Amino acid sequence: MFEIVGVAKDVKYGNIRDDAPPTFYWSYAQSTLISRQMIFLVRTDTDPVALENSVRQVCLDLDKDVPVIHMKTEEEIVQGSLFLERTLALLSSAFGGLALLLACIGLYGTIGYAVARRTAEIGVRIALGAGRANILHMVLAETLLIVAAGVLVGLPAAWAASRLLTHQLYGISPHDPLTIAAAGGVILAITLLAGYLPARRASRVEPMVALRCQ
């Protein structure tokens, strides 16, 4: 039946998430089937838009009864097929960023308040000979200990919950180490800042003033 015979690579149609379906190709000139549409694929090293008129003319030369009614680049087709996924990713990123911001604000406020309440204790330590560097080290060590406990609880929970996003991702693992490391780094930075600023302020207070704080 066919003049032109060979094996082609798998091609996905409609949705990039779907497996490549069993497909065979035949010459349009030899086809006895009547199709409502034809699809021409053109590969070029130049700007595809600049070839639009030339492509239209070639298509008309092949079959004048089949006009070219719509032209798209392969990139536009792929982007269009990922519209829903991109929208969900954008919304998820926005809500995730908001949740991270709220967590950082709450963490900063909680640790800052806890350190501020220890001003009198810090005054006693300074009066007994503790250096300012010792005070900062003590507060930051205790702060990091609290955060480490939270990370030990939160990471397994986040790891398990990320499986719910598997069907929303394409080409990337739900357990992306870069994302997890970035979120952990932000929380760690906020934690250090939340502990450092109040501790630094308290360590610079005169011991007698600090002892009067309640």
Radius of gyration: 32 Å
What is the helix tally? 7
Instruction: Estimate the strand proportion.
Output: under 5%
Q: What best-fitting shape do the alpha-carbon axes yield?
A: rod-shaped
Please state the structural category: mainly alpha
Separation of termini? 95 Å
**How would you spell out the order of helices and strands?**
HHHHHHH
Find the count of extended strands (DSSP E, 2+ residues): 0
Uncertain runs are none
What proportion of the residues is helical, as a percent range? 55-70%
Overall pLDDT, averaged?
Answer: 77
Biggest beta sheet attributes = none
Features:
about 210 residues, mainly alpha, about 60% helix
Write the layout of secondary structure elements.
Blueprint: H1 52-62, H2 74-81, H3 83-116, H4 119-127, H5 132-161, H6 177-203, H7 207-212
Question: In summary, what is this structure?
Answer:
By secondary structure, the protein is mainly alpha-helical. It contains seven helices and no strands.
Question: How would you explain this protein's 3D organization?
Answer:
By secondary structure, the protein is mainly alpha-helical. The protein contains seven helices and no strands. The longest helix is centred in the middle third of the chain and has 34 residues, at 83-116. The model has no long low-confidence stretch (mean pLDDT 77).
